[in-house]
Amino acid sequence: MKTDGPGYKSVLFVCHANTSRSVIADQLLRSLLAAQGHAEIRVRSGGIAPYARDGMLVSMDARLVLAEIGIDVPPGTAATDLKVQRNLLVEADLILVMTDEQRRMIEVYPEVQGKPVFTVREFAGEAGDIGDPAGRGEDVFRQCRDEIHRCLTKVVTRLVGPEPGPKGRL
After folding, report:
1. Which tens digit of pLDDT belongs to each residue from 25-47?
2. What is the DSSP secondary structure assignment for residue 111, as one 8-state letter?
3. Does the domain spanning 14-159 belong to CATH 3.40.50.2300?
4. Diameter of the chain by CA atoms?
């Protein structure tokens, strides 16, 4: 549900397996929101591809590039399969995907009907997809992290409005 102001109560990031991009986006947005004093906004992530499975391990490269900027992925964090955990689709009032393909995949679910679904770049006022860094090394993961971070700094204002808050370390 949308809040009374410009913000949202729940954001769901979606990628194929929920082991890299959506986890990076989830953790970055949590950090950015906390730095702005908006930790009350619920941020979740999940995978939608046929090979997404509950409990898959989060990519070590994703964990490493987040740790480099002071974000530790909590122990026990594992992938979520949105085909199984459809309650997350119901609970989300904003869905942000990494690619147009993922938007097409997620929009077939009745739980998504009538909900805003954007690519991360689109919601940030840009065009294009955020490519999958899987299997391409730490440098590509860093570039992916930095691209997501750049977009999410724009997204935070759209989520909560332009009010100033305390400064974070990102």
Report:
1. 999 999 999 998 888 899 999 99
2. G
3. yes
4. 43
Whether the CB-CB separation of 79 and 18 falls below 8 Å is answered with: yes
Say if residue 6's pLDDT is above 70: no
Contacts with 18 (C-beta within 8 Å, 6 or more apart), sequence order: 45, 46, 47, 52, 56, 79, 80, 81, 82
CA 11, 83, 65 angle in degrees (round to 5)? Answer: 55
Ordered by start, the domain boundaries in the chain are 14-159
Cβ–Cβ under 8 Å, residues 68 and 32: no
| Three-state secondary-structure class, residue 138 | helix
Residue 169 in this model has a pLDDT that exceeds 50? no
8 Å CB contact between 29 and 8:
no
* Greater pLDDT, 123 or 168: 123
Interval 98-109: pLDDT, tens: 999 999 999 999
Task: Tell me the two tokens of residue 106.
Answer: 């997620």
Answering whether pTM is above 0.85, one says yes
Helix (H) or strand (E) holding 26: helix 21-35
- Percent helix, strand, coil in the chain, to 5, is 40, 15, 50
